[in-house]
Amino acid sequence: MSEILVNKLTGTSTAGSILVTGEGNSTTTNLQQGLTKAWVYCTPSAIGDSHNHSSFTDNGTGDHTLGLTNAMASAVNYTTMTTGFPQPASYNRALTPMGNDKTTTATRYKGGPLHTAGTEDLPGNMFVINGDLA
Amino acid sequence: MSTLKADTIQSTSGGAATLTKQSAAKMWVNFDGTASGAASRDSFNVSGMTDDATGKYTASYTNSMSNGTYAFTTATVDTSTTSRGGNTLNLRDGNSPETSNIKLEGRFGANANNNGGLMDQDFMFVTVMGDLA
């Protein structure tokens, strides 16, 4: 196997665009577009581990805001994927992005039940962001 | 810092290069379920969105996946209905992920006496991980 050791990859035609060949050995896919731009695992009170996240704000029960280190290009165009672990013996809980509080530098989420109203602190909260960096 | 400049990266045999212990998403989309045609705001590897019915959508891929066993995640926003649980976006009932598209359904939250129903939401997200054909 050949291996290139390098600290930074840049496109020659467009700095932020590099194609990689797909697994089927025929199509190509854009490397930058496929890379996750931010992810985080957090408890109801703090970030456990993360990429491109700079801050955690507890707005109240089941209501949190996460700040981004490097901003996204648009406040509305990126995707926010979410999963939340329920408390033991609980079920039908979800973590949901709050679309009206989504900016280029922060995202806000609500944890709570799927079968009734209200918010709830979930023990484990996971977020993944895809889209374009500024 | 050393910088490697290239437009396309392949393995030495011309296939897929390995990203050490990592993989990249093969598709993602941010779309408006309330808009005509479930219009995409931004996307990667999506050739088009189809609004099949209220709360029902199809996201078609530009480059197909190699099989239907890929992983995907979905999410949608909470619209703050005070009497119901959170909204969801899921694989459409009775469907499996396909190599060329994925069929989805969005539902508003349930309460103690009523199931959630099909509903268009303004912000809906999908991400696909797996192997390209």
Structure description:
The complex is a heterodimer of chains A (about 130) and B (about 130). Chain A has about 130 residues and is mainly β. Chain A has one helix and eleven strands, in the order βββαββββββββ. Chain A starts with 7 loop residues before the first strand and ends with a strand. In chain A, about 35% of the residues are buried. Chain B has one domain. Chain B is elongated, with a radius of gyration of 18 Å. At the A-B interface, β1, β2, β3, α1 and β8 of A face β1, β2, β3, β4 and β7 of B.
Kindly provide the radius of gyration of chain B, computed on alpha-carbon positions and rounded to a whole number of angstroms. Answer: 18 Å
Percentage of residues in DSSP E strands of chain A: 35-45%
Mean pLDDT of chain B: 90
Integer average pLDDT of chain A: 91
The outline of chain A comes out as elongated
The largest inter-chain interface, given as chain pair and residues per side, is: A-B, 59 and 56 residues
The total domain count of chain B is: 1
The major pleated sheet of chain B works out as: 4 strands, antiparallel
| Proportion of residues in extended strands of chain B | 35-45%
As a whole number of angstroms, the C-alpha radius of gyration of chain A is 18 Å
The succession of helices and strands of chain A, N to C, reads EEEHEEEEEEEE
What are the salient characteristics of this protein?
heterodimer; A: 134 residues; mainly beta; 4-stranded antiparallel beta sheet; 1 helix; B: 133 residues; 0% helix; elongated
